[in-house]
Amino acid sequence: MIVKKYKANSMNEAITRIKYELGSEAVIISQRKIRKKGILGFFSKKILEVTAAVDNRKKEDNMNYGIKTIKRILNNGIRNEESENSSLKQNSSMTGGVYEDSIVEKNNDALVKEVHQMKGMLDKMMNNPYGNIGKSELQVKLENSDLNENVIKKILSSINIMEDDRKDEEKLKEVVQNMIKVDSGKLSRAVVLIGPTGVGKTTTIAKLAGRMALIEKKKIGLITIDTYRIGAVEQLRTYADIMNIPFKVVLTMKDMEKAIEDMGDCDAILIDTTGRNSKNKMQISELRAFIDKVKTDNIHLVISCTTKNRDIDAIVSGYRQLKYNYVIITKLDETCTYGSILNILQSAKKPISFVTTGQNVPEDIKSMSSEELTKLVLGEDIIC
Ligand SMILES: Nc1nc2c(ncn2[C@@H]2O[C@H](COP(=O)(O)OP(=O)(O)OP(=O)(O)O)[C@@H](O)[C@H]2O)c(=O)[nH]1
Ligand SMILES: [Mg+2]
User: How far is CA 255 from CA 67, 134, 224, 262, in A?
Assistant: First the structure.
């Protein structure tokens, strides 16, 4: 087992170095932000220290296997071609014709070219033990950020049709930034948060309420329709009590209309909903009936950035019938690659309103600019 520490300016830089030195089998054990040593380091920007490990035997085995296979193909290819050429040579010497000699020469040229190509491949493989033959540096970078295949294709084709002669890296930033739409919306009237179980809806409502009531000094009301989970009501009631803001539990659709009416003097009413499985159409329809009563176009789909790529589409489309207008992405502090932000936004085709970055109420919520989000997506920044 090889364990190695890397100091880098970004996670992407660290991953690229780790993959280059330790190979794709390497795993990241830990990461932390540190300052450079010495007095000057105290004033310097924090850098990232990433610890990675790899089972070295496995890596060598894979590499040796690959090299041996290519060498075998190379040798067999040469032998086959040689035997074909020797029969051709015999033919030509029998007939003594100029035409046959030129065929032999052409075949030799083709063979030499092919051997050169294969040698090139072999060299590449030896220099590139994680076997990304055929992939561009840009593609590897995007894959390292955990962007999904479709998003990567979209980015690369957008870069390909750009005709100016800027560096690919610059074009990449522009393309990604254009794909990220930010809009925090107007948090007025009724604001509804929907999303799968446990993504942080209630905590995010408490953060928004705290920010608006305590910092912006607005009059806020809280409503929950989450009477499904034991303790859900108490969770929000506790925040409402601490912040001294009105709070109502809604059980029926009629209650919903009444609760909104009663809070008519509030600048904003934040409505918490039950976490639902996006695959359960019944549950989603039930939720829709409540939300329709609210009559708002301030509906935010809350989704965690730790959601698996394959599940993102299912969640986004499962909730589509609730006609959400914005996306809130939570738990940015729980991951070290942020490609899922772009995967989610591309799938939802809605702007991002807020991100949340921890469990602390009310501070761990912010609206980030598309430049800041681009840096995260491309691995040039992290949230610790
Ligand atoms: N690390 C981290 N944890 C968070 C964040 N937001 C919420 N959590 C935690 O996630 C857990 C679930 O949060 P809730 O707010 O209860 O999630 P929910 O979506 O309301 O859950 P249900 O009502 O059960 O669907 C809690 O432990 C929160 O403290 C965040 O940004 N970062
Ligand atoms: Mg909740």
Answer: 71, 61, 11, 10
Among candidate residues 264, 266, 267, 233, the one with its CA nearest the CA of residue 250: 233
Higher pLDDT, 188 or 102: 188
pLDDT band at 26 (very low <50, low <70, confident <90, very high): confident
Closest ligand (CA of 332): 1
Once rounded to an integer, what is the mean pLDDT over residues 90-97?
A: 41
CA atoms 36, 42, 48, 52: torsion sign: positive
Query: Does residue 287 have a pLDDT over 70?
Result: yes
Joined tokens for residue 155: 């980015």
For 330, left (φ over 0), alpha (ψ -120 to 50), or beta?
beta
Determine the distance separating the centroid of ligand 2 and the alpha carbon of 203, expressed in angstroms: 7
Query: Which residue's CA lies nearest to atom 29 of ligand 1?
Result: 359
Domain 189-377 classification at class level? alpha beta
CA of 328 to the centre of ligand 1 (A): 13
Would you say the CB of residue 312 lies under 6 angstroms from ligand 1? no
The span from the CA of 310 to the CA of 9, in Å, is 30
Please state, in angstroms and rounded to a whole number, the distance separating the CA atoms of residues 281 and 166. Answer: 48
The domain segmentation of the chain, as residue ranges, is 2-54, 59-127, 137-179, 189-377
